[in-house]
Amino acid sequence: MLNSLDPVVTQTNLDLLNLDPLTPETRVRLLRFPLGKKDSVLLPLEQITEIIRVNVPDVLLVPEMPSCIVGIGNWRDEMLWLVDLNQLVGYPPLLELGQVSVSPVAIVVQVNDQSVGLVVSQVNDIELHELEQLQPPTPGLFPQSLLPFLLGYIPGDGGAVLDVTAITQCPLWQTHQRGESWGGES
């Protein structure tokens, strides 16, 4: 009778299999969603806190704010600034595109304890990509207004990858952040 816990037999059997150790997963999960009428972009999933449906009538409009600010919504009993991502990066606003047949969604991102809801018409898929292949954004491939908000692009059909930090630290916010907090208490 063979004892399965016998170290000599176990070691010999494993050596015969000649198994290589598993290689670590290097691909990163990215969320794809539309931007404008025909483009789409990617956002690293690890930078997304939550995706919520936006009930537009419940959004509190804030006077004297840039036009890309949709307003303030309630998220987890805190104020959440809602930004029309299309308009922020130089595309026509969501309402002008006629893409909002149902209520839009907000991709909630957090940077330095500041939460912002990036309002888009919908989210599409989660994809796996190698970020080592990321190329710097170049003028001509993308609209000039989008370039400051890009980490880069994945060659082929990979697409453009947004930079959450660049979006949340946009110079547009600097004049509106004094005395205000993007994510709640001021």
Report what the structure shows.
The chain is an alpha+beta fold and 186 residues long. Helix content is 17%, strand content 34%. The protein is built from 5 helices and 10 strands; from the N terminus they run αβββββααβββββαα. The protein has helices at residues 7-17, 85-88, 94-97, 164-168, 171-177, and strands at 27-35, 39-44, 48-53, 69-75, 78-84, 105-111, 114-120, 125-130, 150-154, 159-162. Strands 8-1-2-10-9 form a 5-stranded mixed sheet. Strands 3-6-7-5-4 form a 5-stranded mixed sheet. The termini are far apart.
Helicity level: 10-25%
Amino-to-carboxy terminus distance: 73 Å
How many β-strand runs? 10
Radius of gyration, CA atoms, in whole angstroms:
22 Å
Structural class: alpha+beta
Low-pLDDT runs: 178-186
Query: Within the largest sheet, what's the order of strands?
Result: 8-1-2-10-9
What is the beta-strand fraction? 25-35%
Q: Report the mean per-residue pLDDT as an integer.
A: 81
How would you describe the shape? globular
Number of helices: 5
Q: Please trace the helix and strand order, writing H or E for each element.
A: HEEEEEHHEEEEEHH
Q: Main sheet, how many strands, which sense, barrel?
A: 5 strands, mixed
